[in-house]
What we know:
This protein is α/β, with parallel strands linked by helices. 41% of the residues lie in helices and 17% in strands. The protein is elongated and about 75 Å long.
Amino acid sequence: MRIALVTESFYPAVDGTTTTVRQVADHLIDAGHELLLVAPAPGLTTYRGARVARIAAPDTGLRTGPQLREALVGFSPDLVHVTSPGRVGRKALKHASRLGFPTLLVEQSHVPQAALEPWLRRSRSHADHAVVTTRWMHAELTAAGIEPPPVWSPGVDLAAYGPQLRDDRLHERWSRERSPGGPRVVVGHVGGLRRQHGVRRLVEVDQVPGTRLVVVGDGPQRRWLADRMPDATFPGTLTGGDLATALASLDVLVHPGEDETCCHVLREAAASGIPVVAPASGGTLDAVRHERTGLLYDPADPRGLRRAVATVVGDPDLRALLGRQARTRAESRSWHDAVEELVAVHYAETLRRATVSAAA
């Protein structure tokens, strides 16, 4: 099958959209499909033998629509797969629909109530089929009186993440194994350090006795956090093997964001055998099983986060049990499984609906 994958960001960018698109691209290529990737400029123009059509911004003097139309017509895809459309994705849906190419919308970004009407008009209306990536998004659309798309859940790279990658020397350094007070429990956070992700609540975690906080990532809140948590360590942004080793070398992962969607880091922590503490909201309800793979707390409870972290920090047997169960659950949904389902169920439904629409 000839598939055009359209995205608002792509490798070497580091974000949730890139994680999803890159994994889908890798598994489609491995399965023998022919791909065209479409993403904003600048960036690499080939990926594993597939062309990456880079769409320049309007301020360069090039209009987005004609660039997309040229890319799609030149490739003539059997299906156009658009992830979380923005400037590029919305135009791609519009032009693909006009050209008669079957279109699938994979929405992995939260669509707030105020943006539902524009989303329906500018994105959903141009797609033959659509999916969302969390039950939370499905429920929100249902509550708004909109026929909700089915849920397609992301997977996790079980080869790249695993307990065997734990680096005892790194853990010893982070936990201050040889300090006078004895080793501490290493509690980590991985992600962009932006206020909307709830990262200021990490100060509460830092105050739990017996912990050492490791904050992996960067962003505008880094200085604010560093000023208030002088004992925490900030390795910066980590990717690839460095990130996998860091995750496996934690004792607990904390993620205070209340509106997360795909939760890739939570799944990667689970694959690494690390329990997660997160709010009982958003996509975390899909990624974490309370008291089985981690602890979920009520985000409305001002003491909920600290209490949950203290519970896991204070019980090494519980940490070990949650970690083992997290790895077992992660093994039930690899990226191979997720992409197989995407093709067999949702690509097939996209083609079916496009055929029915063309015949009408």
